[in-house]
């Protein structure tokens, strides 16, 4: 009769200790584990990008429109329907190959090396940056996303170019042709390293977006998971992964949309009408108003929210498959 309460108490104690150990687990991780984390991150985000590519195309088309905010013609269903009617269903797959290349480098880096930077910064600070603290997560997300965003900028430029609308017909035959065209376009300006500069056009906005996105997505996912487990609200498993990823998807959509709009405008600005990030922000603000920075937000949320959920669910399952602890 007296055994039942002690069993229940023991289970509660084990669950509580498990949550604490998950938060305070040691940082010793092998190079093999870091490599596996990168591959798991790249594979999961590539799957997510494949699912959300149609949303991404519609979002880019919305962000490139310059009519006044609130006009129904810019609604995602109107843009999507117009695309299918005018260009066929395959228009929703534009930029797919470049998107896969981008995910492997950019998202693989920002998500796959996040824990490497967490471990490194925690060790370098002799524990001053605690694993349960927000500061460590923010700094780790900043480091991983800054590097990944800059390296992957050319794939982002080509992806956006291939997803944009061209009334006179698409100028790019395939992904390799788009890379070459952008390079030649920059080289033709006569500016030193013009071709390389063209491929890295908008890198400032890309990096800023990557940092904001990663802090609001990866760090928030990590923090929500940690808090729910530490307070005994939820245990490690699918329901916890879904809950944390839903919160992270909304958070990163709200935070990254303005920078994303500026980034897309810069990357598709063939005539160099925008002189840089700050000039782009000012031009959009003056000509279209502050709400222009949230053009395509519904598609941004649909894409990023779905992308976040799919990415983290697959990421966690792949980690389990290869024997790596959850995030």
From TrEMBL:
<keyword id="KW-0813">Transport</keyword>
<keyword id="KW-1133">Transmembrane helix</keyword>
<feature type="repeat" description="Solcar">
    <location>
        <begin position="32"/>
        <end position="120"/>
    </location>
</feature>
<keyword id="KW-0472">Membrane</keyword>
<dbReference type="Pfam" id="PF00153">
    <property type="entry name" value="Mito_carr"/>
</dbReference>
<keyword id="KW-0812">Transmembrane</keyword>
<dbReference type="GO" id="GO:0016020">
    <property type="term" value="C:membrane"/>
</dbReference>
<dbReference type="InterPro" id="IPR023395">
    <property type="entry name" value="MCP_dom_sf"/>
</dbReference>
<feature type="repeat" description="Solcar">
    <location>
        <begin position="132"/>
        <end position="227"/>
    </location>
</feature>
<protein>
    <submittedName>
        <fullName>Mitochondrial carrier</fullName>
    </submittedName>
</protein>
<dbReference type="InterPro" id="IPR050391">
    <property type="entry name" value="Mito_Metabolite_Transporter"/>
</dbReference>
<dbReference type="InterPro" id="IPR018108">
    <property type="entry name" value="MCP_transmembrane"/>
</dbReference>
<feature type="repeat" description="Solcar">
    <location>
        <begin position="236"/>
        <end position="321"/>
    </location>
</feature>
<keyword id="KW-0677">Repeat</keyword>
<comment type="similarity">
    <text>Belongs to the mitochondrial carrier (TC 2.A.29) family.</text>
</comment>
């Amino acid at each position: 009769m007296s055994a039942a309460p002690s069993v229940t108490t023991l289970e509660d104690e084990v669950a509580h200790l498990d949550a604490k150990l998950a938060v305070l687990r040691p940082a010793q991780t092998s190079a093999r584990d870091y490599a596996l984390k990168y591959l798991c991150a790249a594979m999961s985000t590539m799957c997510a990008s494949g699912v959300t590519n149609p949303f991404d195309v519609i979002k880019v088309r919305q962000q490139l429109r310059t009519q006044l905010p609130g006009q129904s013609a810019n609604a995602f269903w109107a843009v999507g329907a117009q695309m299918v009617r005018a260009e066929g269903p395959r228009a929703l797959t534009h930029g797919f190959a470049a998107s896969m290349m981008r995910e492997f480098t950019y998202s693989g880096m920002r998500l796959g090396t996040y824990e490497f930077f967490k471990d490194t910064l925690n060790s370098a600070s002799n524990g001053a940056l605690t694993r349960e603290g927000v500061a460590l997560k923010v700094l780790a997300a900043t480091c991983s996303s800054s590097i990944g965003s800059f390296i992957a900028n050319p794939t982002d430029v080509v992806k956006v170019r291939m997803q944009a609308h061209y009334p006179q017909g698409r100028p790019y035959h395939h992904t390799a042709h788009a890379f070459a065209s952008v390079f030649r376009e920059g080289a033709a300006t006569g500016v030193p390293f013009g071709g390389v500069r063209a491929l890295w056009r908008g890198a400032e906005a890309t990096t800023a977006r990557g940092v904001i996105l990663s802090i609001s997505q990866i760090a928030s996912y990590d923090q929500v998971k940690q808090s729910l487990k530490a307070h005994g609200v939820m245990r490690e498993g699918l329901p916890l992964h879904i809950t944390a990823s839903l919160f992270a998807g909304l958070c990163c959509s709200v935070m990254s949309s303005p920078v994303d709009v500026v980034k897309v405008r810069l990357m598709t600005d063939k005539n160099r009408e925008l002189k840089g990030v700050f000039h782009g922000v000012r031009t959009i603000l003056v000509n279209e108003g502050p709400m222009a920075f949230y053009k395509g937000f519904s598609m941004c949320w649909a894409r990023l929210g779905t992308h976040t959920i799919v990415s983290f669910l697959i990421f966690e399952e792949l980690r389990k498959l290869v024997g790596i602890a959850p995030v």
